[in-house]
Write a structure and sequence with these properties.
It contains 5 helices and no strands. By secondary structure, it is mostly helical. The mean pLDDT is 93. It is found in: Membrane.
Length: 117
């Protein structure tokens, strides 16, 4: 099984996800605008928090447990691929899409690749 060769990469991604959770508990304007632009019902916003907390926990646990960080990182990449698809479907391709959505997809993808090299 696989353990990250450089533990700071999954730890960094986990930190970014947890910071996103903190900003999303009472969504700051750019996060609220992003969620509203893809027409995600407000009653479902809490699900995104749970997914991100679980992903961060998996990334951290995976520093010591073989395969867990890899699976969590793949899950984060898939999550942001779905977010990209949602934005494109909703024609919500403004600045939030380019910075937040694609930025997180690129970050999580790069960390995945660098972690397995």
């Amino acid at each position: 099984m696989w353990i990250p060769s450089f533990w700071l990469l999954p730890a960094f991604l986990a930190t970014v996800l947890l910071a996103d959770v903190v900003l999303s508990i009472r969504p700051v304007r750019f996060i609220r605008d992003c969620l509203e632009s893809v027409r995600l019902p407000e009653d479902w916003w809490w699900v995104l928090l749970v997914v991100k907390v679980l992903a961060a926990a998996g990334l951290i646990a995976g520093i010591w447990i073989p395969g867990v960080a890899f699976a969590a990182n793949v899950g984060v990449v898939v999550y942001f691929l779905c977010a990209v698809a949602s934005h494109i479907r909703a024609k919500a391709t403004g600045i939030a899409f380019w910075l937040n959505c694609l930025g997180m997809l690129i970050l999580s993808s790069v960390i995945l690749v660098l972690s397995i090299v």
